[in-house]
Amino acid sequence: MPHHEPQGPSHPLTRKSFLRGLAAVGVAPLLPGLLPTAAEAASAAASGFPLVRDGAAVELYVDPADDPAVLRAAGDLRSDVERVTGIRPELRQTLPESAALLVVVGTIGASPVVDRLVADGRLNVSRVKGRWEASVSQVVERPLPGVDRALVIAGSDRRGTIYGIYDTSERIGVSPWYWWADVPVEHRDTVTVPAGPLKRYEPSVRYRGVFINDEQNLTTWSHRTQEPDKNIGPETYRRVFELLLRLKANYLWPAMHPYSDFFNKHRENPELADHYGIVVGSSHPEALLRNGVHEWAPWAEEHQGTDGSLPVYDYTVNPGVISDYWRARARQNAAYESSWTLGMRGLHDSALETKYATTIPEKVVVMNDIIADQRRILAEEVGAGAEPQIFIPYKEVLDLYNAGVRVPDDVTLIWPDDNHGNMRQLPDDAEREREGGNGIYYHLSYWGRPKSYLWLDTTQPAKVWQELRRVYEHGADRMWIFNVGDLKSIETGLSFAMDMAWDVDRWGADEVQDFLAEWAGRQFGHRYGREIAAIRTEYYRLAAELRPEFIAPGILSVIHHGDEAGRRMAAYDRLLGRARAVGAELPEAYRDAFYELVEYPVHGAYLMQLKYYWADRNALAVRQGRGAGTNRFADLAHAAHAEEAALTARYNTEVAGGKWSGIVNPYPSQIPKAPGRPTVTRVTRQETSGLGVAAEGNDTGTARPLSFSSVTRDRRFVDVFNTGFVALTWAAEASHRWVRMSETGGSLTEQTRLWVEIDWARVPGGAHDATVTVTGAGQRVDVPLRVRDDGDRRRARGFVEAHGYVSIDAAHADRRVARGGARWRVVRGLGRRTAAMEAAPTTAAPITGDFATRAPELRYRVRFSSTGTFPVTVFRLPSLDERGHRRLALALDDRPVTVLSGQAIATGNRGDAWARQVEDGVEKLTAPVTVAEPGEHVLRLFMVDPAIVVDQIVIDTGGRPATYLAPPESYHPRFNPAPDPA
Prior knowledge:
The protein is an alpha/beta fold. The chain contains 22 helices and 39 strands. It has five domains: about 150 residues, Chitobiase/beta-hexosaminidase domain 2-like (Chitobiase, domain 2), CATH 3.30.379.10; about 300 residues, Alpha-Beta Barrel (TIM Barrel); about 120 residues, Methane Monooxygenase Hydroxylase, Chain G, domain 1, CATH 1.20.58.2150; about 100 residues, Immunoglobulin-like, CATH 2.60.40; about 160 residues, Jelly Rolls. The strands form seven sheets. The protein has an eight-stranded parallel sheet. Strands 1-10-7-8-6-4-5 form a seven-stranded mixed sheet, with helices on both faces. Strands 28, 30, 33, 35, 36 and 38 form a six-stranded mixed sheet that branches. Helix 18 runs antiparallel to helix 19. The longest helix has about 35 residues.
């Protein structure tokens, strides 16, 4: 289990307390407002190791026999010290004759100085030596003749040493995102690091990396700003490799689309990767490091048939030509540390082509032959160094694998998600015992069916936590590869994924926001960390309701639940206000980084959906026969689109002095685009006026009464509008004194929204009918109200029915009952509300009977005023198991239990159940319950399959309108004592 562990004569500190200690002595990353006091600096100098003091920098020493990747990374530490202090240390490869202080960087087994300290017992390398990518940083007194004191950074292998180096860089205040997100480096005259020893044990996951994919924007930016003669080349990859190492990653699938240069086109690329210590592999359609998009056509031209025909990329037709094609790359890259993808798919991410194998069993035989051929090539051309070898059962290849493809035991199985963050299948007991182990291919960005999300980082970190925790518990710990699209905009999500890949136990189910706070604090300062974390959490929550890339006309209601879409836009507006408030407080140097990491995602997501909100209001206005107001909504929709375009233009032309030209574009030309300018309707101006009224809950008119309950203390809207363009005078009057209105009339050219609520202190008990009458332009419209005094809500012990439904946030269970070694746990920051409930552990055995005595249970008290048989809809978060089931069960009181079965298979078809649930972010499972008598009852949810996640529960007792989102949560004396009145 990997983690940092400071060691000393007393008991070990925790990771978090250690970081707090670093901050106290000024040796954590320097954060605005947290510069150490003079006394703290003096304390740090006495107990730590100064890298820069009194205007002089301590020299860095690396043995020339060490790996070149270590020497190169030491050069980055040299530059980082200069970034912090303005003073550049000397980097030397010979030992000084005498020195008061020296930094020694070396790899165990490759650095004689380090090896001598280990042999003499001067350097503590327990649980470091012989491990994978582990390191220790420790101050050693009199380590060498003539050297009084040295900071030794030693790794178990070359990357272990490199990570120790970058640990030091981050501890002195250089963010891994200093270049890729323009996070400034705070200046200090004195820099001190702890004496140690500080150990970084081997990671939870051996290979941790990214797939640069669907990279048109990155290609555009690279061509404009890095290499005008290339479309992603070594200058760009140099920056990518450094970022990966600073994030403690070690692995890359490079860009592969037609608009990018393929990785091996520029021979500097694989050489540079090896020089940095990065393992290079290739994606599921790119066997043995071959890029079919670019490389197959020229190869086919050079290997025409005797009749001049071009060979096709079909192993049942041209096995020899294809085998030679793979062999050439294996020979070419044999000297580099590579990952070799086995198997085969079609060119450019298309399905496997097998002209002479049409059935699944026949295709299985072909795939087995392909793997055997590729293994033979690697043995002959690369030898023992041909590892890791991986097999990726992606899309149709998963069907072949499950049908009998034989993957050699030393090959790593890479399990894919469904492209939307839900793992399709996890290793079984036999697969977990494989020598090659298991890994995952996981999407933080995606282009394809049913919808693409490429523009912004919109996957909740808590969702990533839940799935990654699940895969790790199922033994998939050899390789984690994350699809990050263009890389930019995914900074927060990628940082979290890499943090988990290094230490999967560091963050618990209720600690994801702690990661966000710590991460934001490292970028912008501790004083801003919690608020930025709260902003990002709400941003992700809103994206979980509906990704900004998924918005489309008519998804959200503009007439129900106080204007469902409008309420959501109000939440975005509040969020943007919070983000701008933080941005205004930050020092000027942090403004670019804040725009990139916080403000642009929030503002961009807001505008992407705002324009569709106004377009939906425009469409409603047309149906309602509005006049000038119809055109007003059209103007607002197009204005929001223009503002969004200007926001993106600022990113590409002004931020960081235009450094990111072309890097962000919601509408790239060659791949699926985010929703563009919405279609709106305008009406021709008529010199007329007329009164129109539409009450909440009605598409047109006022037929559906406004519903009010003393439990929820609601407010409802009435839209009063002009059917023409000439101003009119209107007035509103209530039938009862206890009906309150936000306004009672005035002059109207377009429209106004009148809010109605009840003065409950003056309402007699029982149910009442009331009316709001609106007059104007010689017309009169009555708006009916249904007002119900449901009694003293303070006497309720649970959720209370009102307005024909009960709406429950699943995390608000009155009681959780653990059984059989399994339980329901709260995962904060997950789902459409503040938290969701997950059945854990994810490896628990399914429960298929005797639920009341064997299954973990959630209990919710509900007070019903209605009786009858009602549908209960459970909003579960999508999760899959293509070799199992996704089930839960429910019951009311002690009545019989009903098992609900969710979608377990990713079909990949547009418009089917799987497509709907990944677009919505939830799957709605429904079963009936019967309420025989009014009063308090207990709704019970049971785990059937582990890792099932429940977000919300809605009981429809009659009249609940069909809406995209669940209704606002019902009254509960503890969890929701003051329901949202809108």
